Amino acid sequence: MNWVERHWYRPRFVLTLLLWPLEALFAMVATLRRAAYRWGVLRSEGLPRPLVVIGNINVGGVGKTPLTQELIEGFLLRGVRVGIVSRGYGGAGGVPRLVTSTSLPAEVGDEPLMLAACGVPVAVGRDRVAAGRLLLSAHPELDLILSDDGLQHYRLRRDVEIAVVDSGRGFGNGRLLPNGPLREGVRRLETVDAVVLNGSADLDLPLPPSVPRFRMRLVPGLPYALGRPDLTRHARDFKGERVVALAGIGHPERFFATLAAFGIQAERRLSFPDHHAFVASDIPEDADAVLVTSKDAVKLQGGNHARLWVLPVRAALSPDLAGWILARLKIRYGR
Fold first, then answer.
1. Taking the domains of the chain in order of start, what are their residue ranges?
2. What is the 3-state secondary structure (H, E, C) of 194-244?
3. What global pTM score does this model have?
4. What is the pLDDT of residues 298-310, one digit of tens each?
5. How far apart are CA 181 and CA 56, in angstroms?
């Protein structure tokens, strides 16, 4: 965490003053941009299928990908055909493309590859309207589309907005970038359709009382060998070994805390920037076992798997968010 990010959660008065002009500029541009869409100066475009946006108002990882994976599973169990559009952070961007079994993280991003592994079609691109059209041209049978991390992508018209909030970190100092962690002010949550609180912490967050809330917690599974997903271990199997925890995600502290709660004590914790492109030298050679996230595992497929273990997590939601979305969109299922 650099000095600016530390200021977001442990604010310093001098930095607040120094960064205020940049924050004011960011706020003005963001306000004008959203107003331009609201007034029709810039045009939002829809898709011929209901679209649900999953996003957040602050930077950093809040758990959107495991939430999206859980929603996918919930829709598929009900027989609802769902597809994904994503920006594809960490990929090449540019022209929209479909994610295939041969796609590389450098081409389409790490998170889209994880979502495609759920067995649903995925299209990526900076222009999510174009990505959505490509998705539907290839899969016209879809009933519903999820947009991963698109809350501020106002060009794409949406039917339902889901905002994910980290209940442990909250909104930091409550200020906008770069003076704080927020892309949009907290009042933006008054306009979304539902808020998902990730974690069990109960900070006194300024959430709108009229917006439905859902609770999410991340439940770890058994660690598996990166090169052999059928080979799993329990936490006790790592005792006596030199264990290193490695993460290149938006909020690595959550992964480290999950490992500790699962009973795996890491000798070292290595953090890399979100969407980091790993190279062989990033993997410590003196470790007996290196524990990584599922997201990072996608980018480590071509490396030496001998010491790499993946800790999978799934989102547990309460109440049933997938059912709530389908009811709100009046999508019939079970046919």
1. 38-81+143-218+316-329, 222-311
2. EEEEECCCCCCCCCCCCCCEEEEEEEECCCEECCEEEEECCHHHHCCCCEE
3. 0.94
4. 999 766 678 999 9
5. 11
